[in-house]
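Need residues for this backbone.
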């Protein structure tokens, strides 16, 4: 019988690296707390219609990448490919507009997309999601970008750059869409198959195509920044000025349109390092018409999402620290089987005193136990018949090799 392995595009996060994920999550919690965002926990699956209407049926996410199935009641259910639509659904469902605005949320958890697996990209991946709903202020866009920058600064990422664009609004985007189609029409036969399909459905997505031929064709395409309405121009100008005042390194990119239909006005990515788009650690923007798309009243919002796999890879490549890898404080070494029950009792006492403790469960020799202690713990607590009879414990510092004999109370105090 063949062995069962993890599905393609998934990854086991094992104990020797899980502490890195815990560190990044801990830093995120500190940043969002400083900015006044509250954690919410949302379902891992939603009604498929939420993503069809919210994300957009012509997006790659909805057309190609969603994990969708019928439940036992015959309802179409989808494992969440992103969180913004879910956050807005929750905001509307629980009538959060009645409270003070904007409402600020953060959440973290697994997402699911049927993509081609590659380094830093999986079919199940962990995403940090930050959303602020209820205000049209461009300064809220700036706060969201500043929050993302502060998160990466605290993680030690280098050379942070804000890549920025505006994707307009329902008033000015149709005019730009027509101008873009007029420009692209003579080049239709030169576009890749995917972009030919996007021409009528979503021509702005052609600007984001990575195919070299398509990139060359769109190099001289009209810029949406030259086609914005007065409201979008004013909004974007305020975002730019505020980011400059914060000292952000800004790069304008007329190709940046993001891959989801709900974006309006501000669209951005954060790059870290010198590897261009391969070091894009987050992306986001404003979505002022998402609520209407899923059946709610007009409700503005802005946010970003960051895949933690990419963040951790970037930290590793730049030599950023993850803090100190957690170790046990104590490892109880038993001289013989007669000491095992006493060791189990001592382990319980130390643990209830918040001292991380382990012991041997494999009947290994004392020498092997000491070696195990050296690899996993700061101290070895040696327990033999002599220690049991005299009610003291031999404590060995695994870094210096120094030993001392201590009573139980002194042992606890010392380890604490």
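Answer:
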């Amino acid at each position: 019988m063949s062995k069962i392995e993890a599905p393609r595009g998934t990854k086991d996060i094992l104990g020797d690296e899980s502490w890195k994920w815990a560190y990044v999550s801990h830093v995120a919690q500190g940043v969002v707390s400083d900015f006044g965002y509250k954690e919410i926990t949302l379902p891992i699956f939603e009604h498929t219609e939420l993503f069809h209407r919210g994300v957009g049926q012509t997006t790659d996410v909805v057309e190609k990448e969603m994990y969708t199935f019928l439940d036992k009641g015959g309802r179409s259910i989808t494992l969440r490919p992103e969180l913004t639509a879910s956050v807005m659904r929750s905001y509307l469902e629980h009538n959060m507009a009645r409270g003070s605005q904007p409402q600020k949320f953060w959440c973290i958890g697994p997402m699911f997309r049927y993509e081609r697996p590659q380094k830093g990209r999986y079919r199940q991946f962990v995403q940090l999601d930050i959303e602020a709903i209820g205000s049209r202020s461009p300064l809220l866009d700036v706060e969201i970008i500043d929050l993302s920058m502060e998160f990466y600064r605290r993680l030690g990422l280098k050379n942070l750059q804000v890549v920025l664009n505006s994707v307009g609004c329902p008033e000015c985007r149709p005019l730009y869409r027509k101008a873009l189609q007029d420009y692209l029409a003579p080049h239709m036969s030169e576009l890749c198959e995917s972009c030919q399909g996007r021409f009528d459905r979503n021509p702005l997505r052609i600007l984001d195509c990575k195919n070299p031929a398509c990139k060359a064709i769109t190099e001289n395409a009209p810029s949406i920044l030259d086609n914005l309405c007065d409201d979008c121009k004013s909004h974007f100008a305020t975002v730019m000025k505020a980011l400059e005042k914060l000292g952000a390194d800004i790069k304008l990119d007329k190709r940046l349109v993001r891959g989801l239909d709900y974006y309006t006005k501000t669209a951005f990515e954060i790059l870290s390092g010198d590897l261009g788009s391969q070091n894009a650690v987050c992306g986001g923007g404003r979505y002022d018409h998402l609520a209407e798309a899923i059946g709610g009243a007009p409700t503005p919002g802005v946010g970003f999402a960051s895949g933690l796999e990419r963040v951790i890879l970037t930290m590793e490549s730049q030599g950023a620290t993850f803090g100190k890898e957690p170790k046990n404080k104590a490892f109880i070494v038993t001289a013989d089987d007669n000491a095992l029950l006493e060791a189990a009792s001592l382990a319980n006492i130390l643990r209830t005193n918040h001292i991380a403790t382990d012991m041997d469960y494999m009947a290994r020799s004392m020498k092997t136990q000491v070696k195990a202690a050296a690899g996993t713990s700061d101290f070895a607590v040696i327990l033999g018949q002599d220690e049991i009879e005299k009610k003291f414990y031999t404590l060995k510092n695994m870094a210096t090799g120094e030993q001392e004999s201590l009573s139980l109370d002194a042992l606890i105090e010392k380890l604490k």
